[in-house]
Amino acid sequence: MADMENEIQRLKEDNGEERKIYRERFERHLDELRWLYMELYDNGSMFAELCAQMESFFAERKEVLKAADLEREKKKDWYKQNDMLGMMFYIDNFAGNMQGVKSRLNYIEKCNVNYIHLMPFLDTTEGRSDGGYAISDFRKVQEKLGTMEDLEDLTAACHKKGIHVCMDFVMNHTSEDHEWAKKARQGDGEYMSRYFFFADPDLPNQYERTVPQVFPTTAPGTFTWFQDVKHYVMTTFYPYQWDLNYRNPRVFNEMMYNFLYLANRGIDIFRIDAVPYIWKELNTSCRNLPQVHGIVRMMRMISEIVCPGVLLLGEVVMEPDKVVPYFGTVEKPECHMLYNVTTMATTWHTVATRDVRLLKKQLDIVNSLPKEYVFLNYLRCHDDIGWGLDYKTLGEEGIGECSHKKYLNDYFQGLTGESNSRGELYNADPLTGDARFCGTTASMCGIEKAGFERDGGAMEQAIRLDIMLHAYMFMQSGIPVLYSGDEVGQVNDYTYKENPAKVSDSRYLHRGKMDWRLAENSSDAGTVAGKIFLGLHRLEQIRKTEKAFVSGANVWTVETGDNGVLCIGREAEGEKVIGLFNFSEYDKTVTPRTIEGKYEDMISGREWQGGEIHIPAYGFYYLKGKP
What we know:
single chain, 627 residues, alpha/beta, 8-stranded parallel beta barrel, 6-stranded antiparallel sheet
């Protein structure tokens, strides 16, 4: 305890302007940070070490990053403006390596993107990486992608262009090839205590009774027996991903040091992977436990002390009531942003059913939350689509969960419902019939099928659906994110089946290499790629110039009287925009309720003053209120 108090007193007495800034941040959070740490670990010497290391990382932080921190502290809502647009990609698929990404920054600017999410790039073991989410070294870049110096060079180049950089921070586990895991495997007790090791099956069996399986077909169970050490190890995801034991303060401290090290390389946004799983407790589901929120809150405060310009993005793939708590409270915030997972899945349900009612309800829930909460909205990401819908509401319409999941998976495979979609199942369970779905946005909209069949009419309809879905996504409350290739209509890549390391994972279907030939056509309105790119470009320009699209705008839905048409309103600083979206392949005429005044469509320039409005199949309108 004495060590902790001495370290805190030293920090308070330090001089210098930078030290003054640091000291003010430190003192602002000290009481709560100490209370949470001691409540969890009751270890004063480890807390003193954490405080000393935080100061060291602040001292090492480059002046240009400190200056950005100060600017963002002054304008805390910098990431909530209407010009924020994200794009995610695997570095090797997008441009070969980090230097390749740097050479493509002009293209990223052309896409109106100012926030790039670099999919996992830290060191992994080939064949045991889970797409990069099994980290063997948190301070080393995969050799094929570059070096830490290349990362700093890339982030600096991005910052000069006003582009923010996001990376995945995998907190829940390490690779079995991580230095800690190797020492644990050699029987070193200190390192074994950083994981969950059990010589006897009794405790693993007790955990298994209450912990749901993540991958019941490809990686059943929650523990793996390792004969060489004669112990069971907790492996929630895959056998080569060993869960970290956050009951051990050494684990928390070291992972925070890794976090700060990477922040000092110029990372602006950290996507905290699998955050609900990071605290384990016997006789629970080991999901969303109170201690998780304590850890994320401490991480937020550590960031606000050392690198306050850095944002935390939580990956919480759960139902809405489990997601929202990860924002924390307005007084004690946790994550700055969260993924809008349920709305994404409900969007594709709406495409398959041509019924917007469930989506409207979902949007109403999100729109009712405090404006401080920021969601990232997307049509697809690197992962599969799981059908985590509101089945209680669907049940009131006589729709059963199992039968509906089967319908959705059949629909998007192109097997039923007059579907034009193409894709494949992921992690299909033959016993329960449950499965997830993989496919690019373009393929799910019908562009792949229309191109294969050389059907011009079907292609035009597929392009309209693709652009309409993006237009709808831009109208949601929060920040839109594209997956690289979607901006030019890139379809499924079936070549993953030719790679022995990827053939068993159908998610690589939509993780194909960027087709730069399509990008070359991005300005040619006579091509599919050009039609989509230019269509999205127009929407992006509208979004970043109209005040109604800021994240803090008032957003609501409007009843249209037709289950196939969704209506969303946005208003900020006295400016109003109404979005109308036809989720069916038929022309619709609707009369949106409670909309008064004159409006002009921002795409066509046509005027509308209440009453009936005609919307073509898979069409949309952006209607701006006129004085």
